[in-house]
């Protein structure tokens, strides 16, 4: 007796399913061999190509359905080809004897359902240490930085949240591609203090002499 190469049922994890249409035993140019075993071999080869193209493998086949013309239960010529194709994998399987298929020269057609594993979402990273703040400031522009400075000066704790990968808001440093004249945008008189200069002093940022 031929060893079983299928199981009564399979259980798959939730994920995308690949439904493979009926695959006949035809060659690339559409020609069909006249003998039954050659068509079985080609049908399984074509099925493997579809499975690989879908990003899955034979071991992920959930079920197979075979449609065989003039099936003879005493010969079972498909059995050894299927065993070689499946290896140790055992999907659910149904064999349906039919009088004919879509094309008169077709003797076998196979369709399949393949369970493609779902890619797990990356784990969420949560801080191992939680810290409480008195004030949360949204935006690390000049106004946000100035507010944070005032909060800390008054003895409170704060955190500044910024979605961009830099601070400073609308200020921006742009390197020049070539030599050229540079013009300062702020002119300070000796002894005067502007908000920008005061901020540079408080945040310990250097300024260039005019």
TrEMBL record:
The EC number of this protein is 1.4.3.4
- Please report a single Pfam family linked to this protein: Ribonuc_L-PSP
| InterPro entries membership | Amino_oxidase, FAD/NAD-bd_sf, Flavin_MAO, RutC-like_sf, YjgF/YER057c/UK114
Composition-biased stretches, type Polar residues, lie in 186-195
Recorded superkingdom: Eukaryota
Amine oxidase domain mapped to chain residues: 142-177
Q: Which reaction does it catalyse?
A: a secondary aliphatic amine + O2 + H2O = a primary amine + an aldehyde + H2O2
Gene Ontology MF: a single term: oxidoreductase activity
Q: What are the boundaries of the region Disordered?
A: 170-210
Instruction: Tell me the protein family, please.
Output: Belongs to the flavin monoamine oxidase family.
Q: What name appears for this protein in its UniProt entry? A: monoamine oxidase
What species does this protein belong to? Colletotrichum liriopes
Task: State the organism's lineage.
Answer: Eukaryota, Fungi, Dikarya, Ascomycota, Pezizomycotina
């Amino acid at each position: 007796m031929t060893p079983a190469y299928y199981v009564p049922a399979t259980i798959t994890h939730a994920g995308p399913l690949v439904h493979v249409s009926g695959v006949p035993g035809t060659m690339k140019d559409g020609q069909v061999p006249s003998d039954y075993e050659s068509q079985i071999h080609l049908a399984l080869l074509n099925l493997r190509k579809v499975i690989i193209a879908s990003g899955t493998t034979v071991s992920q086949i959930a079920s197979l359905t075979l449609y065989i013309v003039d099936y003879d239960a005493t010969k079972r010529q498909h059995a050894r080809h299927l065993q070689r194709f499946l290896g140790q994998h055992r999907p659910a399987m149904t064999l349906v004897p039919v009088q004919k298929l879509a094309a008169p020269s077709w003797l076998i057609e196979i369709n399949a359902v393949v369970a493609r594993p779902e890619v797990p979402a990356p784990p969420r990273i949560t801080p191992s240490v939680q810290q409480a703040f008195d004030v949360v400031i949204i935006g690390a522009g000049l106004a946000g930085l100035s507010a944070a400075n005032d909060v800390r000066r008054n003895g409170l704790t704060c955190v500044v949240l910024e979605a961009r990968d830099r601070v400073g808001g609308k200020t921006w440093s742009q390197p020049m591609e070539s030599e050229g004249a540079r013009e300062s945008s702020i002119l300070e008189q000796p002894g005067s203090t502007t908000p920008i200069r005061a901020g540079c002093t408080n945040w310990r940022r250097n300024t260039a002499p005019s």
